[in-house]
Amino acid sequence: MFPKKTTRTSGFTLVELLVVVLIISILLTLGASALKGAGGKGVTTAVATSEAIFEEARSIAIGKGTTSRVLVDINNVRSETYLRKILVAFQKLDDDGEPMEGNWELSSRGFTFPDGVFFSKEFSKKAFQSGGAQLDEMTLSGVSPLFNGRYIYYEFNSEGICTTGLSSTGDYQSPSFVVGHGARPAGQPDPRTTSEGRRDFGGFVVWRNGATSMFRDASQILSDRDPTTF
């Protein structure tokens, strides 16, 4: 009788298992770090593109000799663009070259902020320095059904002056445009800040001549506040 031959099955040693666990832990850490930084990049992109759109609106107002507006979508029935889409509209001119009141035309299809980035009604004001006055709103109609509805707006006149910051006495207080990183809870239109994004805000002020100055740090916008809503 020959002795029964045994077959050894190969497997992982304890050291090999520990190495695999270590590698997985490193990959998870790197992935979490990348996700944590995604919000900041989104806010930066939104601010830079919005500055370009403000310049577009000002150039259209001067070039066409009319009034133009940067519009922020506040139609919460369109949840995918609510507080996330901005457009440029300008007043059409009549045969004599005069702006027609309430007759608006879109210059483009606009820009939608990156995922997780929203316009802040809380920190975007007509008078940023004093922290006062809500921005004006308008109803856009007569354009594509995709864009008809309610908007917050910033306005430029035919001289390129940002009239949003002008008071009835002619004084000017720079309005602010602020966006932040957050999330929209299921079934609710209004976004909320997340624990990771509470200080992840950016934006700029708009001067009388239409130029913009970006906030260097979120503390310039938030001060000592810890926001929870937009």
UniProtKB/TrEMBL annotation:
Keywords: Membrane, Transmembrane, Transmembrane helix. The chain crosses the membrane at residues 12-35. Pfam families: N_methyl. Coiled coil: none annotated. This is Prepilin-type N-terminal cleavage/methylation domain-containing protein.
